[in-house]
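Look over this record as teaching material.
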Amino acid sequence: MEEPAIREFEMSLSDGPSDDDDEFPSTLPTDGSHSGSIRKGCDPLAQTQRSKLQHRRARINQQINKEMRMRTGAENLFRATTNNKVKETVALELSFVNSNLQLLKEELEELNSSMDVYQTDSEAVNVPMIPLGLKETKEVDVTVAIKDFICEHYGEDSFLYDKEIKELMELRQAMRTPSRNQAGLELLMEYYNQLYYLDQRFFSAQKNLGVHFHWYDSLTGVPSCQRALAFEKGSVLFNIGALYTQIGARQDRSATAGIDRAIDAFQRAAGAFNYLKENFSNAPSLDMSSPSLCMLVRLMLAQVQECVFERITLTTQDTHFTSQLRLAQEAARVSDVYLLVQQTMAQPLMKDYVPFSWVSMVQVKSEHFRALSHYYAAVALCDHMLLAGGEEEEEEAEKAFLQCHASVPAGPQLSQVLRDPEKRRKLGKAHLRRAVIRHEEAMRVHSLCKILRKMDILQDVLSVTHKRSLDKYSELDREDDFDEIAEAPEIQSHTHQKPDIVPPNFSTVKVTDIFQRLGPLSVFCARARWGPMRVICLNKREGGLGLTLRGDSPVLVAGVVPGGWAEEAGLREGDYIVAVDGKDCKWAKHGEVVHMLKSCSDREVEISVVTLHSHDTQQVERRAVMLSLCSDKENTRHRLLSGAKGQSSASLLNWNRKKKREGSTITKRLGSAFSLSFGSIRDTEAMY
């Protein structure tokens, strides 16, 4: 198995969530109640074409994992032994294992290139899109680790949280097989959002849970394993982007509604991959490395541009000269963006990583749309004459014609070409010749790839457009054409709709902290440190209990009267009340706690309290002030920063912090409130 990266997967943070943020992972009930997720994954036993593909991919991933373990062991033995005979035997075994690995990777590449599985069932003839398969993961059992942490850190009976742990495990199991629709996206986002709470509750800088997350590379099947929760988060986010690509590829693009849905899906896929690229570092698998994500973002944007061209083709009803030139420029734009993707795939790190079928498909599309740009230019020149007597129209047409070409065509001036039918015919014929050459190149590249040859719909598209250009060329060809046709210039690419990168908006899926019975995150989180729970027995005397309460969820002991009964019983300023007479009140409002205390006025009352601790008193005080100021918000909603704001620092999750950010702990560390000036926290308090 692949060695874990030396530096664990990280996410970059600049600033923590601010008090002005309006978007949160969920709306929390103030009573700590919680209902399980209603979202479920696909039936793993359902024999759909896509599920069979995923099962085969999972099987190959497991075989690759086994072979890599064998190779690692053989390599270690080869380095350790000094016996030449053993070295020869191990070298032979290594060659056999490497051969098996190569065969498995080729088989996995063929599966990952099965683009037709994800395409629409429509009979419309459209160029297929390139979808991305989901990352596979092994089952992870966090039961023991979480139970131990609850016992050690929170000091509670872990068996009381069996239901919550089971729900978490079921949610992770469900997100391994998301359906290929909006429900599947919501399932992945729900788990992604839930990881925020998991990180806050159980992952601290001082102690690691010891849980290993295993994920397989989406394209090569190479396994990676890390203990960092950031790796789990990043892999889920990658699958969100991959699922968007599958949803986009399956849309029926024979109508504008389907095209719009495809555009939206591919733009959101680009946003997910871009968000991953900007917020992660030290990726243990190549599919989540910066070069790979950059390539995927460009690929998604190219497919958006292709959809834009298809929509313009459908909606262009008039056959005006300038309309056809616009189609030519849009097609040239699609060709250019695919050429950029092709160059990205040719980079050293990507060259041997990206499937050959992907590279071939991108090259085919670049040539195909370049051919279409010349074809529409020829149609504009030869089939659509200018209306007579329109001086303003002639100027507009001449301007559009000049802007359409990347360089000025050789020969007569443009105004003469536009007014002379014969010159227009010859220039149009030159464009058609270039179109035919480009079509033939696209068909040649297509024929070199075994996987693309199996895609009948792609073969049909290339054949139809090639024949159309040939027929048009034959129509314009004359027996007395003895003059050599001038070389037509390239079409200047231009688009009227540039693709947008739409970041993921996690606030669309509301979730509730599964482990919220542990208490509000402002106090009861993995990074907080507090002393053991103390039980204080109070008897009400004349003059009251002798304590001042402030805030809620949980209620804070703002002060104790010197010499009062509360002080004598051991209650201290800065204590948090977590239970009254055995009734949990971590989520209780100020008034509810007061009511419980007053209802016990005629007898002894037991108050369970905890006290937060910290080594940095100044930072503790500042943190406590901020927590108290925003406690009302936290009782109802928890933060979820939307990617729609376009900030790379916006994250719903607290990832592994980098050292340079550890100093900024105002919003990241908890502490006691012993030396606070409580009047600066809240203007409502009560003496009891």
User: Anything to note?
Assistant: Residues 120 and 250 are 4 Å apart (CA to CA). Confidence is low (pLDDT under 50) at residues 1-6, 13-31, 615-683. The radius of gyration is 33 Å.
